[in-house]
Amino acid sequence: MITILFDTETTGLLKPKASPLSSQPEIIEIYAIKITESVSNGERRVEDMSDFESFVRPISPVSEEITKITGIDNGILKGAPTFSQIQPKLTEFFFGAHRLVAHNLAFDRQMLANELIRLDRQFKFPWAPSHICTVEKSLKYEQRRMNLTRLHEHLFGEGFPGAHRAKNDVLPLRRCYEEMVKRGDIV
Question: Are 31 and 128 in contact (CB under 8 A)?
Fold first, then answer.
């Protein structure tokens, strides 16, 4: 089974669905890792396949608030590709995946969908048939939503550095995902 774990950093939070697409935030960074998962002789095996990483130059400037949270500013994004420029490679990367995993999947999936809608490509994207949200799958641990840092602390007794950067969040997400599979919390 091919699984993609991913995260986005954005220009802000999603607005209500009734809001015009032009007022919705944009992706400024995306990181995804593709793994294969299999079971052989009763033993689970996970192998890395590849990864995808890119800054994305938005139409709207990045606010100081987002820069404080992510460390990503307009200067960093000045020479970055636009979403339309990365979309073909991103589509190719996602092709053939069976499972899509993100910590706050509803947010990241909607951010990706919004970018695809802006390009009229939402129906041409190879969405994986299975979607896993580690926020939802971890609700039973503390009977509340946990951010990724708290989930990592719960599972491993330690946080991780560099939260709120796409790659820095996906690597611990993968560790949490694999532990949750091992525990039987994700099937």
Answer: no
How far is 73 from 78, CA to CA, in rounded Å? 9
Place of tokens 């799958």: 137
Residue found under tokens 């550095």: 161
Helical segments of the chain, H only? 64-70, 74-77, 83-94, 105-118, 134-137, 139-142, 148-156, 166-182
pTM, 2 dp: 0.93
Q: Where are the domains of the chain?
A: 2-137
pLDDT in tens, 7-48: 999 999 889 988 998 889 999 999 999 999 888 887 888 888
Element containing residue 57 per DSSP (H, E): none
Instruction: Judge contact between 134 and 106, C-beta under 8 A.
Output: no
* CATH number of 2-137, picked from 1.10.10.60, 3.30.70.360, 3.30.420.10, 1.10.565.10: 3.30.420.10
